[in-house]
Amino acid sequence: MKNIVLSILLMSACAMIYAQADSSPYQAIVAVDGSGDYKTVQEAINAVPDGQTKPWLILIKNGLYNEQVIIPKNKPYVHLIGQDKDKTIIHLNLNVGSKLTGKEIGGKTAYWEHSVHNPSSPVYKYEGSVVVVKGDHFYTENISYVNDWGVLSDNGPQALAMNSQADCASFYNCKFRSFQDTWMTANNDVSRHYVKDCWIEGAVDYFYGGGDVLLENCTLYNVRSGAVIVAPSHKDAKYGYAFRNCIIDGNSEAADGRLKLGRPWHNNSKTVYINTIMLIPVADEGWTNMGTVPGIFAEYNSRDAQGNVLDLSKRKTEYQYKDRQTGKEVSGTCQATITKEEADKYTYENMIPGNDGWNPRIMMEKLGSPRSLVYQHGTLKWNPVKNAIGYIVYDGEQILGTTTDTSFPVSKVNYALKVSAVNQYGTQGKKGVL
Question: How does pLDDT run across 316-341, given as a tens digit for each residue?
Fold first, then answer.
């Protein structure tokens, strides 16, 4: 983190003033150094018109954005596009319990029912998450969402980096970091999320909630001994959580063989892991008890770091919990493995489009790099890229500006001029280099 901070500060200190083109493919540009339309992400969100029916594109330059960001329900179709996921960081030191000691507060249910909020605490926020998404059709890429409380204290209570309570929410090439409850998904069964090429980090129930959520090619990074990845709370979700072609990894503490894939928080919890590569060992039983009997907690084709198929015969199939109202012990069973035919039902085509044809993959498609870059007499020119709505112009890693034209005024070159095309959803394409 120190190296990232130093890099960002040096870039800001060395920044030159460049002419900005009259038009931009983005509706807003956020830059903490003041070189954009807004200095904070929330200011840019506040300026989004209510009731959008098409993407509102917000480009966020590299920087440390120490703030809470809330996207209200009346602002759908917000697209937050970061410059670099390792250097565009939205972070804040907050938690749900306002504890300053970092001491664990038992289980989630007990905490929510019995803890007392302290609004005067410097780490307490009512929304309880660094970012809260309530507006549907949200899309983000190339951003790190970090809850400093979780990362720095290495302890609870709940400290969310992301709380996504929206339908048609998609996430591409992002990082989510905390310790307890890093990311909460929708508390209903109709919301869909699609998560691709992301890093999700934590230790306690760090991906939890409801909705039909498909995660592909993601890394689940564990940061303590006995970590638990998911704590779903589905009721009548058709699919629940599906992890396809993901990697389970972690630090040395998490690699002691006590890691659990998940525990059933409430209701009819559903989670499947398909074609998972486990770079650190998972406990033989795989899963553990919590507050209910899951609807399905199962795996297909799990493999170790060498690519060997894992023996799943010892995975947990019997669950017990104490009913909170009656105090009686309740038990039940759940399958721990699925067949290839069953695994093939958890696909993008089945889980994501729904009745409205939602297709977030198309948002993530990168356009080709601009070609034939020429710099003469203070102007950079290039050939147009098919389907581009505009371009981002760089000098090295510094954004000089954006334009809808195929030329851009540059008064001075410090490093190497580059241009990337922008698609209609705001996604950055491959860079062409002068």
Answer: 999 999 988 888 999 999 999 999 99
Q: What is the residue type of 108? A: K
Beta bridge partners of 181: none
Ramachandran angles phi, psi of 84, nearest 5°: -150, 125
Which amino acid makes up residue 160?
Answer: L
CA neighbor of 76 nearest in space, from 199, 202, 184, 166: 166
Q: What is the pTM of this model?
A: 0.90
Instruction: Indicate the residue type of 104.
Output: E
CB 366 within 8 A of CB 427: yes
Token output for 149: 């409380």
Whether 163 and 129 have beta carbons less than 8 Å apart is answered as: yes
* CA–CA separation, 42 and 30 (whole Å): 10
Q: Are 209 and 186 in contact (CB under 8 A)?
A: yes
Q: In this predicted model, what pLDDT tens digit does every residue of 272-311 receive, in sequence order?
A: 999 999 999 999 999 999 999 999 999 999 999 999 999 9
Q: And the tokens for 248?
A: 């389970």
As given in the structure block, the two tokens for residue 321 are 């919990």
- Where do the DSSP E strands lie in 223-302? 228-232, 241-244, 247-250, 260-262, 270-274, 277-278, 296-300
